[in-house]
């Protein structure tokens, strides 16, 4: 568990990036920090591994105040995946993945064997191990970035807009891959994005932020979609939602009479209350039923 307690960050030039921020990030779940550019998402993420130190408050990991931990050692046990993968261009894929374990004293042969396993884990063919990053597609580079983030088998994986720079189809693939990985590995993932659809798809807990990292709302996607806390949240989650074919995802546990609506890509799109009232038509599969009104429920939710 990661706990932010009254955390603030004022940069030397006076910018108050984070202002009195409190949050509990549960273990083995995915928490997504989502908000517009400049609201403080990356600063929050980087405070978890001490790439940035707070100017006020404290951060605890499993009860330990990280201010008392050595930053480099802390960073080595927390995976970090960034936009544009951050791979070392002059090193082969296998060496990129094996670098940190080898720095930690893992013998080269063992580190390489583990790196090949990690390529399997992230869905990459082992034949790519000998290539250099610029010989990979953007999506493949991001997968290598995820493999590298997992190399020390960390409990915590920080992901800063990891899929921001790839095209929408590859992005959808990578998102599904992360969902699969998370089902298998159960890491504590903290994921930053400005894309609310991505946040709702990936997050067990979604935290919608405003400038200064003020929390506009936090909760399960279903709770946020069903009850936006204010106009800001309603606007934020409504933005860009076009007309889409929706269906009920009955694999998501429903609370009371609520059902989660998903679109054809599996994105959470809204909540309906009474199945008899708004659902029509036969099912398109064992897990879903079609919904007649494609826009209104998403907009209203
Ligand atoms: N080193 C720094 N010095 C001064 N101000 C900074 C520094 N790093 C970030 N900031 C400012 O802090 C605020 C929060 O920045 P941060 O990068 O955390 O936002 P973000 O939500 O991740 O934005 P984006 O989505 O654009 O990456 C912004 O106003 C930014 O300009």
UniProtKB/TrEMBL annotation:
Keywords: ATP-binding, Nucleotide-binding, Transport. Pfam families: ABC_tran. It comes from the Bacteria. The keyword Transport applies. Gene3D superfamilies: P-loop containing nucleotide triphosphate hydrolases. Residues 280-301 are annotated as: Disordered. Residues 2-237 form the ABC transporter domain. One of its GO terms (molecular function) is ATP binding. InterPro entries: AAA+_ATPase (IPR003593), ABC_transporter-like_ATP-bd (IPR003439), ABC_transporter-like_CS (IPR017871), P-loop_NTPase (IPR027417). Residues 287-301 have a biased composition (Polar residues). Belongs to the ABC transporter superfamily. This is ATP-binding cassette domain-containing protein. It comes from Leifsonella bigeumensis. The lineage of its organism: Bacteria, Bacillati, Actinomycetota, Actinomycetes, Micrococcales.
